[in-house]
Structure formats: structure tokens, C-alpha cells
Amino acid sequence: xxxxxxxxxxxxxxxxxxxxxxxxxxxxxxxxxxxxxxxxxxxxxxxxxxxxxxxxxxxxxxxxxxxxxxxxxxxxxxxxxxxxxxxxxxxxxxxxxxxx
Length: 100
Hints:
The chain is α+β, with helices and mostly antiparallel strands. Helix content is 37%, strand content 18%. It has helices at residues 2-11, 17-28, 34-44, 50-53; strands at 70-78, 88-96. A two-stranded antiparallel ribbon has the order 1-2. The longest helix is centred in the N-terminal third of the chain and has 12 residues, at 17-28.
């Protein structure tokens, strides 16, 4: 069953496992759950799960030099120029160090 399903998916439905499982059942009479098919496709290299497909949206942060050092940034949008210009964002930066 596995080899049949994967050969059909490889030939015709190299797409999302949910849609591939639906097409297998609808057109080929091969009823496999989408999670089972997803696992088979991952094992065969036909599909990568989201965790491995997407890169991390966060950049690694450099370690601070001082233990207990904290940098806090605050931004507030306001009409700083009394409606003579578009609202602007003021950024405030605070650096705090723990004593000791």
C-alpha cells in the first residue's frame, strides 16, 4: 500500500499531503490518512514539515558584555508636531546595569 501510494504521489501529486491523500482516495481508491501519507512523504523526501521548511524569523542576539545588563527600547507613535506633520514614532532607549 505504501509503495503504491508513494509512486502515485511521486508521479502525479507531489503537492500538499492533505490534497494528495484526498486525490488518492478520490481517483485511485487508495484510502490513506493524511497524517500517515505526510509521514511517508517526509521519510521519502517528498515533503518537509514546516519546522524544517521555514527559516527562523529571529536573528541570533549578541551576548551582552555585563551580567545583568538590560537594554530596553520603547516606541510610541504620537502627533509630536501638533498636526503640522504626519504622526511620528519616538524611540527611547534605556540601558540599565545591575549594581555589583
